[in-house]
Task: inverse folding
């Protein structure tokens, strides 16, 4: 009780410096946890995100660009492919589903993706779950100018069943580039927590034949999303051999997870920079604990001498200072959880808005324990320096008031 | 056997010119249990150093200092701290209350390094010195006389065998000084504690039946006064 009373009163007496140093520890804890969680979660979420497809067939070019464009609905399309390529791969006996897509238009920045209704019937984006319109809506009819909006796009654009809209040309919104066609929203998709939530799905022919598009685009596709048949373990290798090594017109992006992992490998340096910044903040925060307690030692000399005169052992005084530093670390670590919550929630929202990928920021990771504990230990270690000064305080010399 | 028995006790300080300055040189001194004795000492007579040696705050350079049968001079710092916490109550001229702690907490802290904090006893002793309605007040919220009473309560809370008082009335006016001295002496009697008080105030010293001059027992003080 005595030790904690001494610590508590000291923290209270130096409330401002306690607050500021605890805040810096909180920032460090929050940053360390956030950087780690966002890195791990985004890595996991993006590499496991395939919307239920095993591969993508598209124009010759970068596999990563192809995957980003057709699965994540990011980036420009690497080019178009002819309809016959879709027909060829669709008939391959190892293919369970081949979904053609065409991109090139948007509505207020949200992509329009032309496809077939097979998207709603043939694909499970996770086992047991299909892309399904919410009750009150339905899938589009391929013969009409109808649209099914992804849940996030509908929410952001305020679209509801029955609404009409005119698409804009290109993947980037330009209000002067509006198409003449009017589409009717006939369904809003159930949230899937995939990039599909961020797009507006329309019939393939609608996008191919939109006014202003070239005549050639009428029988061209941006990509074909492919699901292999279960029990065809070699199909991926066979198709990769056929398209990537023997052919020179198309790109077969497979396996999707490995291609996305390449992206994370390319930007790994950025993770390291963020981690280094977070570690630097932690070191500075720990240093501030040391400096604030050390600087207050002069004014504490008399109190320490009085405690010693009352019978407090040197070890007790040493422990009190170290535990005070650890307590500042603990207060900061707890507050760091709040900062962690704020940073990751904001980051998760931004990532969801930009990519449609949902991060589970509440999922446990070792840094959730490691960062707070590490900062508490680091703070305690920083308390050793002022604690040594307290330990060496001369009792007799400091019992008289400082005037 | 006396409660306090000192033989050939010496303590010197280093001076800026590199030589040493002998402050305490006591060939013999003894204090029986429960006895109240005053030492008359002027400034610079080494009285605070002498009390700090008895309290174990300072370690003597040589000699023996037996308190309740234990030779303080042979103990390490930690053991001296422990012995001080359990055996000695110390009343300082400047009270030395911890400003960030309430009256009750000041007394409890004094107890906690000794036999252990006893809230009921701490409350009782504060009531005894007339501060029952000031338990949760901070020292800055008390008058000088009341602060002195807290210091007395803290010194006696551990039921010490020996109470050391260094100019305990030095910061008090005449009336408060008389009341405070009476309280210290009465509280020591009630607790069966010996009292060793040093002062240069003739009014305080006149209250004691047993009175000695520090120059009579400290040879270093004689030289200091002579110089």
Result:
């Amino acid at each position: 009780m005595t030790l904690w009373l001494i610590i508590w009163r000291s923290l209270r007496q130096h409330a401002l410096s306690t607050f500021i140093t605890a805040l810096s520890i909180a920032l460090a804890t929050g940053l360390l946890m956030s950087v780690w969680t966002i890195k791990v979660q985004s890595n996991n979420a993006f590499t496991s995100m395939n919307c239920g497809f095993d591969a993508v067939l598209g124009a010759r070019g970068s596999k990563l660009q192809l995957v980003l464009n057709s699965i994540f609905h990011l980036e420009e399309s690497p080019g178009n492919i002819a309809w016959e390529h879709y027909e060829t791969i669709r008939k391959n006996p190892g293919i369970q589903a081949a979904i053609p897509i065409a991109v090139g238009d948007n509505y207020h920045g949200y992509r329009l993706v032309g496809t077939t209704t097979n998207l709603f019937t043939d694909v499970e984006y996770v086992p047991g779950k299909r892309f399904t319109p919410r009750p009150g809506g339905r899938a589009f009819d391929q013969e009409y100018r109808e649209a099914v909006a992804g849940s996030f796009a509908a929410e952001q654009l305020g679209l509801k069943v029955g609404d009409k809209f005119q698409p804009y040309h290109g993947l980037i919104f330009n209000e002067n580039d509006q198409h003449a066609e009017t589409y009717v929203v006939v369904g809003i998709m159930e949230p899937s927590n995939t990039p599909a939530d961020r797009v507006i799905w329309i019939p393939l022919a609608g996008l191919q034949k939109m006014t202003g598009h070239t005549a050639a685009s009428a029988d061209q596709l941006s990509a074909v999303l492919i699901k292999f048949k279960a029990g065809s373990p070699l199909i991926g290798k066979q198709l990769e051999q056929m398209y990537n090594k023997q052919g020179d017109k198309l790109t077969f992006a497979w396996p999707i997870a490995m291609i996305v992992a390449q992206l994370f490998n390319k930007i790994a340096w950025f993770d390291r920079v963020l981690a280094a910044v977070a570690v630097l903040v932690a070191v500075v925060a720990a240093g501030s604990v040391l400096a604030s307690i050390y600087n207050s030692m002069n004014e504490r000399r008399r109190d320490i001498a009085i405690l010693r005169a009352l019978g407090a052992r040197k070890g007790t005084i040493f422990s009190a200072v170290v535990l005070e530093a650890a307590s500042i670390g603990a207060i900061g670590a707890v507050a760091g959880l709040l900062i962690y919550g704020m940073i990751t929630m904001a980051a998760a929202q931004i990532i969801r808005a930009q990519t449609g990928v949902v991060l589970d920021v509440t999922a446990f990771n070792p840094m959730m324990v490691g960062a707070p504990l590490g900062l508490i230990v680091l703070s305690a270690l920083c308390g050793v320096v002022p604690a040594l000064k307290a330990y060496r305080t001369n009792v007799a010399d400091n019992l008289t008031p400082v005037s | 056997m006396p409660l306090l028995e000192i033989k050939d006790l010496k303590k010197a300080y280093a001076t800026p010119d590199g030589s040493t300055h002998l402050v305490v040189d006591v060939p013999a001194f003894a204090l029986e249990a429960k006895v109240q004795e005053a030492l008359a000492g002027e400034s610079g007579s080494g009285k605070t150093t002498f009390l700090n040696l008895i309290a174990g705050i300072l370690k003597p350079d040589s000699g023996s200092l037996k308190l309740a049968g234990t030779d303080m001079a042979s103990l390490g710092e930690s053991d001296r701290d422990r012995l001080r916490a359990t055996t000695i109550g110390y009343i300082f001229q400047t009270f030395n209350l911890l400003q960030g702690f309430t009256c009750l907490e000041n007394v409890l802290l004094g107890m906690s390094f000794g036999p252990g904090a006893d809230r009921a006893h701490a409350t009782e002793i504060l009531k005894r010195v007339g501060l029952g309605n000031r338990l949760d007040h901070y020292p800055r919220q008390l008058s000088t006389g009341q602060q002195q009473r807290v210091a007395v309560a803290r010194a006696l809370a551990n039921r010490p065998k020996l109470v050391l008082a260094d100019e305990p009335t030095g910061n008090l006016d005449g009336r408060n000084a008389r009341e405070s001295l009476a309280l210290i002496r009465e509280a020591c009697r009630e607790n069966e504690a010996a009292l060793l008080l040093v002062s240069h105030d003739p009014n305080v010293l006149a209250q004691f039946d047993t009175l000695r001059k520090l120059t009579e027992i400290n040879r270093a003080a004689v030289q200091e006064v002579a110089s």
Chain A has a mean pLDDT of 92.
